[in-house]
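Instructor's aside before we start: the two examples that follow are unrelated to each other. I chose them only because their records fit on one page, so don't look for a connection. First example below.
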Amino acid sequence: MELDKRHSKIQFLDMDNITKDEDSVRGNPKLWSPWKKNLLFMALMSSSLLADGAMTWGATLITYQAEEWDISVSHSATSMNYGILLQGFGGIFAVPFIEAYGRLPVWLWPQIITMFMVLGATLSNSWGVFTTFRSLQGLFGTIPQVIGLPIIHDMYDAKDWPRMINIWGTTFLVGPFLGPAIAGYILEASSWKISFAVLTALYAFSTILIVVFGYETYYIWGQRLPATSRAGAFFGIGNTHQLKRATLLKWCRTLAVYIFKLPLLLTGIAVMVVFTWPIGITTTIDTFLYEPPYLFDAIQASSMRFAGALGGLLGFVFGFLFNKWIFKFHRNSWRSEYRLHGVWAPLFFMAAGLVTYGLTLHSGALWVGLAFGWMMVNIGMVAITVAITAYALEKYPSHATCVAAILNMWRTCGGFSVSYYQPAWIVRNGTAAVFGTQAAVVVAAVILTVTMVIILEGRKHTQQEEEL
């Protein structure tokens, strides 16, 4: 764990007192020019926006694909499910390689592979082939959701981390709603294949940005790395000083340990439940919008996605402001678990939103009720996730990449199965009962898990004070 200790010290160095003479051969990323940093960050944002945005791209296309392939709409909607699941595992698999070979190659090559998986989905002529390519798209396309955090930590001073992480984090709020909206607009003027062809082009553009503006950011102050060519950096040659095999094994063991650390396990379960129902809405809402009493067309159904996007942004704003306020309020006796109190108000919004959404469907009321309910659900989803992520990253600062990957895994596991059982559940019990039950489940799960973490961490802190 000596390396982790060095990282902790390095992260809080005063970069104003570091001269370029003390820099390594390749250069400390914190000393790069603003232009170089901004262009690299722009490339990161493009690939991060596609991670979730491209995975939910097909959500507004499922009805048309069902007609073409002669399958039910509910079955067509499951084409995204395995991709959503594999997003979580793809992030976990990436962590050891990020630490062993550096950021740049693990960022670039999965992006290229994902581009070809989207191209394969574009050219597919059956549901099975299409779903296979979409699943592989999820496995490789999730990397920016994990690699962004170490890149930001490498490239910016500690005082700039919250601002840059917040900007980067907005891509995960906007992407899942912006992607389906754009796909639906394109569909109205052409076909679902043209829509996916556009997505392939967006991946190609993002890949070009990485090739042109991407640089290796791995750096430990005071350690000289071997000089390497820019081409070599794309293949992980000379990017780190780490022994490859030993580093891969070390981070595999670390992941296994941290997945089952009780605070991460409990908060991870909370994240899983919190994401299950919103992802269910995201992937199945079109099955309601195209049917009576709404009878939406592609443009109207796509535009509905902006209700989810607005809710996500409002949830993000709440989480950001709450984290600033709670730190100031407890400044003199700060403990990381105080950030978890940011889940209570959003939990109310989420439960109320699920009930509103279900009752609107049950009564066939105006679509405004669906939009308002969805917005409240996403306020809760994002704000609760912001609180839990802030707690986890602050508690384990030297394992930020590892923690981000674990939370990402729990998040995607939550949304994987809901499309399989929710349609049949609604047919059996009705929308009011289903979404009311979902509200009760999320309230119970979050209260039980988060309260337990707060109690356990509080006891640990009290014991430490008594020992002192």
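Example two begins here.
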Amino acid sequence: MITLKGEHIYLRALEPEDLEFIYDIENDEAIWEVSNTQTPYSRYLIKQYLEHAHKDIYEVKQLRLVISNYEKKTLGLIDIFDFDFKNSRAGIGVLVKNINNRYKGVGSEALKLLVNYCFTHLGLHQLYCNITEDNEVSIKLFTNQGFKKVGLKKDWTKINGKYKNEYLFQLIKK
């Protein structure tokens, strides 16, 4: 059986009530580096996004899920992006918003649930992620889930006027 429920957290679809949570994330400049965001988002645009979040992954090529605990507290977001049905692959990104909820296995459990969902329910063959060279926490998170470093993109991301290298990690279904 396919499930998006783990021992401590579960993944759920976006709801209109998530507007302020997403607004806070999308407008937090401290995480723009990992989300590849360059400009703030208005509540109006996020409301429109939420109104269309029900669209099928095969149509919009992405899926964003909320990471929640069993006390129904919203902890973060996990994304499938660049969904490529023909080549059976997609990118994955994960963010635990509050630093007090990090380093407690939330991201790891969410990633494990999403990887399982991608391979068993969506029938994907491979997943990938892009991580800047100095993001040791994300590198550890993805490598612990079996992702392998397969490439280095030199001077790939410009942050605060300086270029950073970015690793490409890949997980191929066994």
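The first strand starts at residue 9 and ends at 13.
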